[in-house]
Amino acid sequence: NAGVTQTPKFRVLKTGQSMTLLCAQDMNHEYMYWYRQDPGMGLRLIHYSVGEGTTAKGEVPDGYNVSRLKKQNFLLGLESAAPSQTSVYFCASSYIASGDYNEQFFGPGTRLTVL
Amino acid sequence: GQQLNQSPQSMFIQEGEDVSMNCTSSSIFNTWLWYKQDPGEGPVLLIALYKAGELTSNGRLTAQFGITRKDSFLNISASIPSDVGIYFCAGPQALNTGTASKLTFGTGTRLQVTL
């Protein structure tokens, strides 16, 4: 099993450009998440999905959109990139996210720079 | 939202030494998770704790769930160079949608091991 995979690993964008980050998991997990990681800020939740066809906003959703058309895939889109979106993006998935049970498995990350 | 404070922020230790780090919260958590992030990689789950007072080991790692449920501790015995990385604590926090939860992450403890 590959676990959680992310593409691309690195990307440089100019301000105003758009792009989509792809996350795939082969563990049949219901729940998927997108985080961004910035120095000194830890991991912050952007959007999440509790199942195929559903998405919801996390802590820092502005400037991002997501889609979960298939259970195994979770896409993160930047419609008009801004320098403030320079960050490392992580996708995660979990089998369960109910109450106190939420063991998440992370992908290797995408390092995005917006010039 | 709830915040998790980790200390120390960073540590420089010699190979073979034991390491201790902790995570504290202003609110009660019913689950504590400890992750490790290697440079350029995503976080990997090390230990999960589900009961106050619980002590759980994973090889040279031992984690404890504090009695007050507001803290957790991670110890690494006889450190080796591959222990280098950032260690995060995390705890589930209820989301607005139904029974789903998200993880709140601490800001991390960066461990450096010298030979």
Walk me through what this model shows:
The complex is a heterodimer of chains A (115) and B (115). Chain A is an all-beta fold and 115 residues long. Helix content of chain A is 0%, strand content 50%. Chain A contains no helices and 11 strands. Chain A has strands at residues 4-7, 10-13, 19-25, 31-38, 42-49, 56-57, 65-67, 73-78, 87-94, 105-106, 110-114. In chain A, strands 2, 4, 5, 6, 9, 10 and 11 form a 7-stranded mixed sheet that branches. A 4-stranded antiparallel sheet of chain A has the order 1-3-8-7, with no helix packed on it. In chain A, strand 4 (31-38) and strand 5 (42-49) form a beta hairpin. The model of chain A has no long low-confidence stretch (mean pLDDT 93). Chain B has 115 residues and is mainly beta. Helices cover 0% and strands 57% of the residues of chain B. In chain B, strands 2, 4, 5, 9, 10 and 11 form a 6-stranded mixed sheet that branches. In chain B, strands 1-3-8-7-6 form a 5-stranded antiparallel sheet, with no helix packed on it. The radius of gyration of chain B is 14 Å and the shape is globular.
Keywords:
heterodimer; A: 115 residues; mainly beta; seven-stranded mixed beta sheet; four-stranded antiparallel beta sheet; globular; B: 115 residues; six-stranded mixed beta sheet; five-stranded antiparallel beta sheet
As an assembly, this protein is heterodimer
Number of strands of chain B: 11
Q: Based on Cα principal axes, name the global outline of chain B.
A: globular
Specify the biggest β-sheet of chain A. 7 strands, mixed
Distance between the termini of chain A: 36 Å
Structural class of chain A: mainly beta
What helical percentage do the residues of chain A reach?
under 10%
Portion of residues in beta strands of chain B equals over 45%
Largest sheet data of chain B: 6 strands, mixed
Q: Which residue ranges of chain B are poorly predicted, with pLDDT under 50 across at least 5 consecutive positions? A: none
Mean pLDDT of chain B: 91
Give the H and E element order of chain B: EEEEEEEEEEE
Structural class of chain B: mainly beta
Query: How do the SSEs of chain A run, as a string of H and E?
Result: EEEEEEEEEEE
Which pair of protein chains has the largest interface, and what are the residue counts? A-B, 28 and 28 residues
